[in-house]
Amino acid sequence: MLSNLAITPAEIESGDVVTISLDIENIGNQSFTYVVTLQIGELKLLIDVKLEAYESTTVSQTITHDIPGDYLVSVDGLTGSFTVKAPPKPAEFEFSDLRIFYPGVTPPEVEAGQTVTVIVSIEAENVGEQEGGRTVELKVDGEVIDSKEVPLEGGASETVLFELTRGEGIYEVEVEGFTESLTVNTQPEPEPEQGGIPGFPTLAIVIGVLLSLFILQKIQS
What we know:
Blueprint: E1 2-8, E2 11-13, E3 17-25, E4 32-40, E5 43-51, E6 56-64, E7 69-75, E8 78-85, E9 93-101, E10 109-110, E11 116-126, E12 132-140, E13 143-152, E14 157-166, E15 169-175, E16 178-186, H1 202-220
Parallel strand pairs: 2-8, 10-16
Antiparallel strand pairs: 1-3, 3-6, 4-5, 4-7, 7-8, 9-11, 11-14, 12-13, 12-15, 15-16
């Protein structure tokens, strides 16, 4: 007589051990040998159990499974199951949405010989299930300018920020294969006031001329 089929644990990692056990009892008054047929998926095991009259015992078998999946266990009419979990997906980084944030105006303007600082950002996501890290590099015209270590839990994401300082020119900014163009212009020179003398408004000149004519007329009269 068979009873109490137990499978522990019910869920294992790939390569771990699962134990299958059951109770068997000889309810007769003579000893005999019982052949236990243990079916695990496509695998069949035969276990010989010798029992004296009215004797009972617990039979157990440990097995290891590497292939993920659900497995049905059958022992002479008793059934159960266990699951082999797939290993967690290793860390894998994906990047998107490279942006350059300009201060003030777009594109930024600087005085001759001066520089401007912009912010370069990119979105990083770990699409794996395990924690991992990645070195993210900022390149300008193909040269590595800065780098940052970005650790992320499985499924997590983060915005990676860089500061970039440049003077007048056109630059190709690259992060993880994504590129954007950065243009820094020089501020135009202020144009001189038309019809005036630098430092004096035109209205003041007109008033001065009129005042001189008025004084000259008074003297002649």
